[in-house]
Amino acid sequence: MEKSSVQHKTGFWEVVKSLLSGLQLTWRHFRNADKRRAPVPVMDESYFKQPEGLVTLTYPYEAIPVPENGRYRLHNEIDDCIVCDLCAKICPVNCITIESVKATEEIGMTSDGTKKRLYAPVFDIDMAKCCYCGLCTTVCPTDCLTMTPVYDFAEVDIKNMIYHFTDLTPEQAEEKKQLLAKQQEEMAAAKSAALAARKQQ
Amino acid sequence: MLAFLLTLMLLLGIVIVLAYAERKVAAFMQDRMGPTEAGPYGSLQSVLDVLKLLQKEDIVPAAADKKLFKLAPILIFAAVFAGFAVIPFTPDLIPAGIGIGVFYLLAIISLDVVGLLMAGWGSNNKYAMLGAMRSVAQIVSYEIPAGLAILSVVMICQSLDFQEISYQQGILLNRFPGLEFEKNWLFGIEALGINTTNIGGITTWNIFRAPLLLVAFVIYFIASLAESNRAPFDIPEAESELVAGFHVEYSGFRFAILFLAEYSMMVLVSLVAVILFLGSWNTPLPNLTALKLANWTTGTVGELSGVLWGGFWLLSKTFVLLFLQLQIRWTYPRLRVDQLMYLCWKVLTPVALGIVLLAGIWRLLMV
Q1: Inter-chain touch B327–A19, beta carbons under 8 Å
Q2: pLDDT tens digit string along B1-16?
Q3: Is B195 helix (H, G, I), strand (E, B) or coil?
Q4: What is the pTM of this model?
Q5: Domain A74-180 classified CATH 3.40.30.10?
């Protein structure tokens, strides 16, 4: 680089000129303060081009829309869940806790036609632990576990970061457990009776 | 007593508006939004700030010189507020119409320095001490060019009375007792033969009566920025190096008083600049043959219209200068201490001395 490329301007009028151009700059920004950034998503062409105006968005009232494939808060549609436990197994940070109880009969169908045979008395996701990798949503066979566009869910008490997705009350869960135990008892009794009958023959 | 209360109310109102404007202007110039939550467009923000400050604990550091520490904010504010006593707000409204107003104002504002030094020393804090020392050095130095610039106005106007200086700069010239037969000439030179006594407006403002006062105005404005510790001369309060300067240890009500004093100082120096150079409460619109713009926008002295027009012009000119102060703060970087002293002693003071000399010669041309 040649040194002569930088030329310092000196002298009284140059200084006055540079002071005035400084004032001109702030005045231009002040005048353009009636224009504002629009909350356009990152996919929009104008996202990286804002020639003038205020750049601030008043966040809780305005927010930039998140991309469709963004990974934010998890949601489980329990009606569609077959309690297969795949999500809990793949989770790298073990933030999903599932307990399952076998149903005594078929409970119903998910929206994609899979039969449901398990109750989930516990289906907890600890959002404080979640690392938002999205693996659970890819393994989910019925697509009931999804990422929502909600990202602002801070809590005062960290216990509230554990989301409970079960549709059973503790009483109902207890009832289902007893039903299963009763059915298994009956089946065991029937089985032992059948065994005894075969022995007698 | 009534004048005291009215001036105090007016001052509090202006300062609250100014504190809000400062935040909004700063935000807009930096492409931000500023306060938006409290009231419409955040307009109640500074009121809430004051209420918050009043509720805060009044902390006096254990190692502070308690008497000086407690007295300092009151002294600083009293010194600045006393300056408002001689400011003419309208043609017939002046808290204390004394004949040596300019002299009194310069003297009483200088008392501010004592308060700053008390605050800095009394706080027993390095930052406060440094800030106070810088502040005193700066204010004492810049009083000289400011004083010389004011002196040139006094020489042109031949008066130390703010109200008389005000009357000289407009169509009401002959209404002032003692000036009944005075005449204003364009650029103050009778030889040009253009009588502006009844034209008024901007042609009789001091910067027009004697155009060299325009230079004096620029000198005074720069010096007044330094006197009110405003950027780019805010080294006494340089946030990035001294935290807050002399008022770093203050909290609650005492801090509110210091803050109020600082903004009052801004208002006061702008008011003085308007009165001495920019035609005081006179209208900027001149009388043009048939269009008696100056007469229409002056009102009748002694009646409500005169008071309203006078107050309106004085305050709107002041707000223009205040806006300029804010804009300068958010445009220019802070000067170093040596640059500050260089500007004062080697640039402004010699130029101001030259202006004083020229003002004397100009005055000879005027009579």
Answers
A1: no
A2: 777 888 888 889 999 9
A3: strand
A4: 0.82
A5: no
